[in-house]
Amino acid sequence: MQALAKERRPIGGKRLRVEVALLERALRAANVRPTPSRRRLIDLPEPKKDLARLAELTSVHLGAQLFIVQKANPG
Q1: Among 32, 46, 52, 65, which is least packed, fewest CB within 10 Å?
Q2: Residue 38 banded pLDDT, cuts 50, 70, 90
């Protein structure tokens, strides 16, 4: 929990897009063709679009489930 409390960067933006691109590149390097999205990601706002793509890639190609953990904003 201490690491979570120290993390202040929001999820999204360039950092997330880079991670999605790196995963797609790694899959192609392993002769795996990343599947096209089954969902209409184009209609999703950022960062939901990138998060949905990352979740899809990890589920379909890596057999993993993506979990995002962050503190709730006090509001």
Answers
A1: 65
A2: low
